[in-house]
Design a protein that fits this description.
five-stranded mixed β-sheet, Pseudouridine synthase, 318 residues, Archaeosine Trna-guanine Transglycosylase, Chain: A, domain 4, nine-stranded mixed β-sheet, 6 helices
Length: 318
């Protein structure tokens, strides 16, 4: 049974505290290509051991069966996680028709008798079209959604009744790429909170033959792409290496919707201590990214009035 879980730029600077073992601390965002069979928490635990630091989190759970983009926020950059709660994601995967499963994917026990799919490509495309846009979706019973404070999957494992309310989700794109025998390949671009397992299950119901998600690969989360992802083996290869921070996404690529402003030395000193500062006004944006020089992201600042900004999130030490 599955376990749901819960270069154009110069390299990111790193800090070498005066520790006995010369530990190199990483502050940044690492994109991991998650392998199948590991939970998102497993990946975070591996990264903590490899980086030898506790402050590591992820930006959006992937089911154990799924692979692909799992962004990790490391060190002080864990403070940026709040900006990615509603991130758009894209997926590629395979739906297998003919029977449904308890988990809505290939790792669950069958919950329907085998049925020979009997629909055309045109009928499949028409069914898929009904899932585009804003829809009401019921999460899988084996999910981390809570029922009176208890994760649904814990109740499902005990074979207790799981009743989850439908929620609104958005499939901005949902395209069937191919249909061969009882399997269909798809590509989807979705809003936060969308379960592709539920999409597979529900499209099987719509076509009257049962279905489940056989494979899933996440190709983007927000601005993070699979082309920039590293395997855990690659990360392991940089264990203790002074250039391992080069695996991080450069801060200039983070939160592209926010304007970037470079602070002078005095403003940087004030920001380090959390003080409000005057900064060059390049736009009327409410929030901005503040850099020291061309490399170091030191804060996310919120406009107080005019050119006066308060550092809401400080990403450097005093």
């Amino acid at each position: 049974m599955k376990r749901p879980e819960d270069d154009a730029f110069p390299p990111l600077n790193y800090q070498i505290p005066q520790l006995k073992n010369y530990q190199i601390l990483v502050n940044g965002v690492l994109i991991i290509d998650k392998p199948a069979g590991l939970t998102s928490h497993d990946v975070v635990s591996r990264a903590r051991r490899i980086l030898d630091q506790r402050s590591v989190g992820h930006l959006g759970t992937l089911d154990p069966m799924a692979t692909g983009v799992l962004p990790l926020v490391v060190g002080r950059f864990t403070r940026l996680a709040q900006f990615y709660l509603m991130s758009e994601k894209t997926y590629e995967g395979t739906i297998r028709f003919g029977f449904s499963t308890a988990t809505y994917d290939a790792e669950g026990e069958p919950t329907s008798s085998p049925a020979q799919p009997n629909f055309s490509r045109e009928e499949l495309d028409a069914a898929a079209a009904r899932f585009r846009g804003i829809i009401a979706q019921t999460p899988p019973p084996f999910s981390a959604k809570k029922i009176q404070g208890v994760p649904a999957y814990k109740l499902a494992r005990k074979q207790q009744e799981v009743r989850l309310e439908a929620v609104q989700v958005e499939l901005k794109e949902f395209e069937i790429l191919s249909l061969e025998n009882d399997r269909a390949r798809f590509r989807a671009r979705v809003g936060s909170g969308t379960y592709m397992r539920s999409v597979a299950h529900d499209i099987g119901l719509a076509l009257g033959c049962g279905a489940h998600l056989e494979a899933l690969r996440r190709t983007t989360v927000a601005e993070f792409m699979i082309e920039d992802a590293h395997t855990l083996e690659e990360l392991e290869g940089f264990r203790g290496h002074p250039e391992r921070e080069g695996l991080c996404v450069h801060p200039r690529k983070l939160l592209p919707a926010l304007p970037a402003i470079t602070a002078d030395e005095m403003a940087t000193a004030h920001i380090r201590s959390g003080r409000t500062v005057n900064l060059p006004e390049l736009s009327r944006a409410r929030q901005i990214k503040v850099f020291s020089g061309q490399r170091d992201l030191i804060a996310i600042a919120t406009r107080v009035a005019g050119t006066l900004f308060h550092p809401k999130i400080v990403l450097v030490g005093q």
